[in-house]
Design a protein that fits this description.
Helices cover 49% and strands 4% of the residues. The protein has 419 residues and is mainly alpha-helical. The chain has two domains: 53 residues, no CATH class; 352 residues, Glycosyltransferase. Strands 1-2 form a two-stranded antiparallel ribbon. A two-stranded antiparallel ribbon has the order 3-4. Helix 4 packs parallel to helix 6, helix 9 packs parallel to helix 12 and helix 14 runs parallel beside helix 16. The radius of gyration is 21 Å and the shape is globular. It starts with 5 loop residues before the first helix and ends with a helix. The chain binds zinc ion. The site of zinc ion has 4 residues, from loops.
């Protein structure tokens, strides 16, 4: 076997020594860094130190989820009449998001929404309606992201009467068509930017309401493909840096539009897989969202679900990432003692990170298989030793398996009854 140059062996030995992890073979995969010190390299070193200290405390074990504490934390955001907790008032324009993140995370974590919470979701969203879709809060402009969040929160509420009352598919289609750009993408709001996130959000609500017409989808695949960067991941719009959030949006949008196994006819799946694989860092075990950025628990979903989608397309097998190490990062380092999950040690928990860390763990605890031709329906089997109190999550919609499917069926049957 070829021997690594001594300078590299010295480097690895120094890293092993620095982290006191002499017996961990995976340390050999540490990225090789040069000796040029920058603010970024110092921050990376400090973050590694903090995470390794956290991992060492649990000695190769994976902490279990403190579901009850997390559910109590999330309940704070689901009282229809209560004002936002003081430290979260800056999220007033993200109230639709807060409903989705909180209701969804409770369900993904294996908790149950109370009847009051289920009723409270449509009650709150009623005042956010604007131009047939939803704004981020009461009296705010309609936006693709808040509409996406509102639809998924409504799907999580299981309240079919509310779906029929608050959602009119014809109005949704009319609004979506108004925001279509000549390049095939969709703008997030009237006069707003066109990007792959807005495009994904609009395709999700169109797919849920069975309004994916040819007029709506014409040119969209080409637009999405144009957002793939030379790195392999996707940027927000053509020419931009690859980012895991946008990469997820691009792949999930494609899964809505084309048969999952034909995805490689439209984008470079191989380079995307290589870029996604490079997002898992050593020794942290977590995923980063961009090249040279720090690990963050929310990317457990953005990267994890992207890898599940890619695997649905190319059958690369269940070992595209180290599931145990990811679980150790999220569960040992990112559970806040008072409840909620956080980006990384030193950060405060919030509903966004709680939801996406939970969904990311769901990506890691199960092996997913596409059911049928498209990427809308999935089956899941649990991995060995998985915590099955966590629900498997649909990697296209980001809600527990069965939730989005039920809403799609509701609007499909409604349309058939109207014919
Ligand atoms: Zn994050």
């Amino acid at each position: 076997m070829a021997r690594l140059p001594s300078s590299i062996l010295d480097y690895i030995a120094a890293q092993q020594n620095r982290h006191k992890l002499r017996n961990m073979t995976h340390i050999l995969t540490l990225p090789i860094r040069d000796s040029y010190v920058t603010e970024t390299s110092e921050l990376q070193n400090a973050t590694e130190e903090q995470i390794v200290a956290c991992l060492e405390k649990s000695r190769d074990q994976v902490r279990s989820l403190e579901t009850e504490k997390h559910v109590n934390f999330l309940n704070m955001f689901l009282s229809p009449d209560a004002p936002l907790p003081d430290k979260f008032t800056g999220l007033d324009a993200s109230r639709a998001w807060l409903l989705y993140w909180s209701a969804n995370a409770i369900r993904v974590l294996g908790g149950e929404l109370s009847d009051e919470q289920k009723k409270g979701i449509p009650l709150t969203l009623e005042s956010f309606k604007e131009d047939g879709v939803f704004g981020g809060g009461s009296g705010q402009d309609a936006h693709a992201a808040s509409t996406y969040a509102a639809f998924l929160a409504l799907a999580d509420s299981d309240d079919e009467d509310a779906w029929g009352r608050l959602i009119n598919p014809e109005e949704v289609l009319k609004h979506n068509l108004k925001l279509k750009s000549p390049d095939g993408g969709f703008a997030s709001n009237v006069g707003g930017e066109t990007d792959v996130r807005g495009t994904y959000c609009r395709l999700v609500v169109a797919s849920l309401t069975n309004t994916l017409t040819t007029e709506l989808t014409d040119g969209v695949i080409k637009y999405i493909a144009s957002c793939q960067s030379y790195e392999g991941g996707f940027g927000g719009s053509p020419g931009n840096e690859a980012h895991a959030g946008y990469t997820y949006c691009a792949l999930a949008a494609l899964a809505i539009l084309v048969p999952i196994r034909e995805m490689d006819q439209y984008v470079n799946v191989e380079s995307c897989l290589a870029w996604l694989s490079a997002r898992q860092y050593q020794p942290e075990g977590g995923f980063s969202g961009r090249t040279n950025k720090l690990v963050d628990a929310c990317y457990a979903y953005w990267v994890g679900a992207s890898l599940v989608l890619i695997n649905g397309a190319v059958h690369a097998g269940p070992s595209l990432w180290d599931r145990k190490q990811l679980a150790q990062y999220v569960l040992n380092c990112c559970q806040q003692s008072g409840g909620g999950l956080r980006d990384k040690p030193g950060c405060k928990a919030d509903a966004y990170h709680t939801n996406y860390a939970a969904c990311g763990i769901a990506m890691s605890q199960y092996i997913y298989f596409p059911e049928g031709e498209n990427g809308l329906y999935w089956q899941a089997t649990s991995c060995d030793g998985a915590d099955t109190s966590i629900c498997p999550v649909n990697p296209v919609y980001g809600v527990p398996l069965g939730v989005a499917e039920r809403m799609r069926l509701y609007f499909t049957l409604k349309e058939e009854n109207l014919k």
